[in-house]
Amino acid sequence: MSKRFTLHGFWLSGPTYKVGLMLSLCGEDFAYHSLNLRAGEHKAPAFLARNRFGQVPALEDAKTGLSLCQSAAILDYLAAELGQFQGDGAAGTARAREWMFWDFDRLAGPIYRSRAQRFGLRAYNQPIMEMYWAEGNAALKVLEEALAKADWLAGPRPTIADIDVYGVVAYAPQAGFDLAVYPAISTWMSRMEALPGFIASDGLPKATRA
Ligand SMILES: N[C@@H](CCC(=O)N[C@@H](CS)C(=O)NCC(=O)O)C(=O)O
Questions:
Q1: Which atom of ligand 1 is the closest one to the Cα of 13?
Q2: Residue 51 Cβ contacting ligand 1 at under 6 Å
């Protein structure tokens, strides 16, 4: 049977993982189109028609005919469409979005970029790496303080804010950040990993699947 959602992405991509994790936690089996970023498939006209920004991920929804991009916007859309992992009311929705916007503003850059450097995909100089180190730890400290006071980021239950932020913090060890010094984050990660349908960050398909 054909699937409602097709995720276009790359298995090493954190933003692709966020969307795969959301779909999986929502119990949605999805088709997957793996793009070869080295070959520039994400800049080809066929893909630019799905994502004008030329980046993975993109999500195709066969039910609405929409093709969406930007992982945080996709999580927001899925939460509304599937009625799962939403914040409570307008206030809870706004709180969840605050965390998602903060994530890409403060947390994702230093962690994803430090990881890319370690994987040999980027060649930042020492002062830039030191800046990412300081910025990454400053953001992790903010997260640690929030999670020392509450089990979840935006209300009494897990929301897309937790899924979005988890989709960055999961890569922190590969980026060289030591999560052992952040006990509240580590405990929250265990709570996330215990949710039904959880998939780990290396659990995205490595090839296209129908
Ligand atoms: N803010 C975007 C970031 C997406 C992003 O950075 N994707 C990377 C892969 S992890 C990409 O496609 N890079 C290729 C490029 O930007 O040309 C999102 O959350 O979806």
A1: 10
A2: no
Which burial class, exposed, middle or buried, applies to 125 when counting CB atoms under 10 A from its CB (0-12, 13-18, 19+)? exposed
The ligand 1 atom at the shortest distance from the C-alpha of residue 112 is 10
Q: Which residue segments constitute the domains of the chain, with CATH numbers given?
A: 5-82 (3.40.30.10), 89-193 (1.20.1050.10)
How far apart CA 117 and CA 123 sit, in angstroms, is 6
pLDDT of residue 1: 73
> Which is it for the CA torsion 140, 146, 151, 153, positive or negative?
negative
13 lines ligand 1 (CB under 6 A): yes
Residue 117 Cβ inside 6 Å of ligand 1? The answer reads no
57-104 residue pLDDT tens: 999 999 999 999 999 999 999 999 999 999 999 999 999 999 999 999
Q: How far is Cα 134 from Cα 137, in angstroms, rounded to an integer?
A: 5
What average pLDDT does range 109-133 have in this prediction? 96
Of 3, 23, 6, 8, nearest in space to 167 by CA: 23
Q: How far apart are CA 191 and CA 198, in angstroms?
A: 10
| 156 C-alpha to ligand 1 centroid (Å) | 31
* Alpha-carbon dihedral angle through residues 88, 90, 92, 94, given to the nearest 10 degrees: 160
| Distance of CA 148 from the midpoint of ligand 1 (Å) | 31
Task: Give me the percent of the chain exceeding a pLDDT of 90.
Answer: 99
